[in-house]
Amino acid sequence: MSAGTASSPLRHVLGHLLTPLLMCIGMGLAYLGAFHSPQPHDLRVDIVGSGPSAQVLAQTLQDKGAGALDVRTVPDRSTAVHALEQQQVYGAYLPGAKPELLVASASSDTSATVVEKVFTKVAAAQNAPLKVTDVTDLAKGDPTGQGIFFLLVALSIGSYASVAVIGGAGGVLALRIRALLALGMSLLVSGIGAVFAGPMFHLVEHGLGGVWAMSWLYSAGILLIGVGLHTFLKRWTTLGVMVLFVMLNFTSSGGIFRPELQPGFFGALHAFWNGAGFVEGTRSHVYFAGHGLGGHVLVLTLWLLAGIALLGIAALAEARARRGAVAAPAGVPTAGSAAVSGDAGGRDEAREGQGEDDEVEEELEEAVAV
User: Fold this and answer.
1) Backbone angles phi, psi at 37, to 5 degrees
2) Are strands 100-103 and 92-94 parallel, antiparallel or unpaired?
3) How far is CA 83 from CA 54, 80, 90, 244, 293, in A?
4) Which candidate among 47, 241, 277, 308 keeps its CA 20 to 30 Å from the CA of 166?
5) Averaged in consecutive runs of 10 residues, what is the pLDDT profile of the chain (370 residues)?
6) 261-270 burial, b for 16+ CB within 10 Å, e for fewer?
7) What is the pLDDT of residue 19?
8) From start to end of 2-154, where are the E strands?
9) Residues 6+ apart with CB under 8 A from 123
10) 293-327 vs 274-287: helix axis angle to the nearest 10?
11) Do the strands 43-48 and 131-134 form a parallel or antiparallel pair, or are they unpaired?
12) What is the DSSP string of 24-57?
């Protein structure tokens, strides 16, 4: 065996090892960059009261926070509760002999915890115990409110792993068939998600139909975008969808930390990324009487439309490639070389087919392993 032949499989393996290295770097940058040191910035809180003491307390907290808090005063408790129910604020402090802190943990359990730590110190300075009141009622199956984030994880994995199967094993199918398979898988994945959210784990106690609808919008968007990308990225599609729908998606969704506790980059993504649309849309639908739901549904719909547009571009690219293949000049074999060229062509086709099968298998293994 020649040195060139022996080194060919090694080069093949080394080339494919680039993918997990890029995944490692990408996951480290995304997750550690987003989660390693959560610090509040412009975290909105209210001080309940209209007198000088309330104003002084609000200004003192604003100054000491050095940008960590955004403090305002509101006249009464009902105004504070309304702001919490509209997700305009993350805590409201009622000073006095028996201080009370109002929070809405359904909006973000971690943000509520940060606010509670701040005002526990404020109450301790007054030698008074702090009463904490949650104005939202979390589902019994999701006492921290973070079950919605883990539902997002399940939907995402089911969706982007399906992209690898449809793009790899189904690559020989017409694009319209792959698109129909993607839509069918999105129905199955979202249905499984609804079972998880409702009867199995009781993450939500009402509004399950709306949760399923947003799950379908979310899953269908990922699948259509992924199938469209596969036309251009081929075996790099798995890495591409991981960047879009894991690295940037989970970290900006607000499921663990809201933007007010993260670096600005992830907070900016939170405004329009599809994972944030699903998490915040589900929270709004289940816990906040649909306040702001339209904007979150619009985000999910725009991602779905982006997937449809990308499929259209992929269809044009594939049609152009087919026309180019038909128009390519074909050589005319001589009678003496026909048999030889036929045997060689058969071997070449066999090797090409085996190579395609290997690439499909590697792509599926990458998706499943992740």
Assistant:
1) -145, 75
2) antiparallel
3) 18, 5, 9, 33, 16
4) 277
5) 64 85 94 92 94 92 90 95 95 94 95 95 91 94 94 96 88 92 97 97 95 98 96 91 96 95 94 98 96 97 98 95 78 46 47 51 50
6) bbbeebbebb
7) 86
8) 43-48, 69-74, 92-94, 100-103, 131-134
9) 99, 101, 129, 130
10) 150
11) unpaired
12) HHHHIIIIIHHHSS---SSEEEEEE--SHHHHHH
pLDDT of residue 369: 44
Angle at 332 between CA 330 and CA 336, to 5 degrees: 145
| Centroid of chain to Cα 210 | 18
Residues 222/159, Cβ–Cβ less than 8 Å? yes
Q: Are 74 and 48 in contact (CB under 8 A)?
A: yes
Strand partners, 94: 100
Angle, helix 175-195 to helix 293-327, in steps of 10 degrees: 150
Place of tokens 């048999």: 339
- What is the pTM assigned to this prediction? 0.86
What distance in Å separates the CA atoms of residue 259 and residue 261, rounded to the nearest whole number? 5
Rg, Å, the chain Cα set: 27
